[in-house]
User: Fold this.
Amino acid sequence: MILNETVDLDTISRFNQASQLNERGGEQTRRWQHIDTSLRIYLPYVYLLRSLTKGDWLQLYRAKNATIARFINDTIGFVLGEDRLINVKVWDDIIREAIETAKFTPAKRLGNIGTAVLDAYTNPSNSTNDTTVTSQLRPAIRNELDRISDRDLAMMWVTRPQGIDDLITSVTLLAQIQYNKSHF
Assistant:
């Protein structure tokens, strides 16, 4: 049984250390002892992938909410057997930057959806960046995980080629998203 653990700064720190060790560990990280230890650290947090598909929290990340939604959708797709659109190591840099940018980006006040559409229409210079109306409208996050238990989700994830490495990096990023969404 996988227990759902809460995310705090100690968890984030432990995840960052384990993720860095996994990236640089070479042959040592392919030994069963390392794999077993990593799975014991990360499996209680697999629930984060499902929990971040629920609720109305993306607006907290302001201009970067579309980026974070794409990462979550790409991760869900990977777990369900699809190829990643962007390598998880590249996502690592993208998501860390998105979190940092969101912390220091003032919230954009929108009067209503009509104001947002009108602004996007009359100001086409904004139409090519991540702060367009589509990101303001909260991009859809896939919700295909509703009927999959955490145990089955973990099994699907780790049995994929490079699945353990993907799980380690992805759960580290999901934990950072979860932690930061509650501390904006």
About this structure: Residues 56 and 138 are 8 Å apart (CA to CA). Residues 9-181 form one domain.
